[in-house]
Amino acid sequence: MTATAARRSDRRISPVFVGILAVTAVTGWATWTGFAEQPGVAVFLFVTAAWIVSLCLHEYAHARTALHSGDISVGSKGYLTLNPLKYTHALLSIVLPVLFVIMGGIGLPGGAVFIERGRIRGRWKHSLISAAGPLTNVLFAAVCTAPFWLDALDGVPTDFRFALAFLALLQVTAAILNFLPVPGLDGYGVIEPWLSYKIKRQVEPFAPFGLLFVFALLWVPSVNHAFFDLIDSILAGLGISDLETYCGQDLYRFWQTSDFCTVSS
């Protein structure tokens, strides 16, 4: 096999990712048309598949930016194929974020692709690699919210609108959490290249616990309320109401769906 062929195979889109896209498309169609007998099941599958797609794109953005910044090893690791099974921690990157969506309706930052930072020169490149992932969530949120802030909801079925609103909430929460300057999160990765060696050495032992620290803080009622007030304010600015995100989550959790959103719609 030639080097050129190897590079092409390293970048070929994985059938696993194509399958996830197919599930997103089919369940999105079922949600739009009302084809499913239980709309909540279709919404659940649509939002979950779309959320996994966004997680794959998040990690791909890190890897692709790293490739163009000098780390040519990302291809051989399978990071450019969009295959979630190739990530360093598939459990953290896919399974755990999906579980958090099911349990709490929050966009948990995913796991990681391993970037060989020693191959990359320049602090701006290191910062951009870290920022590329959450910026993907911002872009995904812009796409999900576009029908709302463009006032283009005429003809959009209610269940699909609710599903988009909930998916937008997940993307906004993921972007904000990822951009926090906490060790172990992408926000810290953005500022880390600009810190002194001494500070980086002092902070390094805490990196594995950064995400746990964030979620411990979110258990504090005042912090939790402030965080979700911020999320609601951002979504309201994008034309999405509390009712729409609530009903989106209500439909998503089809095993305990109430009649409130059916009556309200």
Automatic annotation (TrEMBL):
Protein name: Site-2 protease family protein
Swiss-Prot/TrEMBL GO biological process terms: proteolysis
Keywords: Cell membrane, Hydrolase, Membrane, Metal-binding, Metalloprotease, Protease, Transmembrane, Transmembrane helix, Zinc
Origin species: Streptomyces justiciae
Localisation per UniProt entry: Cell membrane
Source taxon at top rank: Bacteria
Family: Belongs to the peptidase M50B family.
GO MF, one annotated term: peptidase activity
Cofactor requirements of the protein: Zn(2+)
Annotated membrane topology: Multi-pass membrane protein
Transmembrane segments: 16-35, 90-115, 127-150, 162-182, 203-220
InterPro entries reported for this sequence: Metallopeptidase_M50B (IPR052348), Rip2-like (IPR044537)
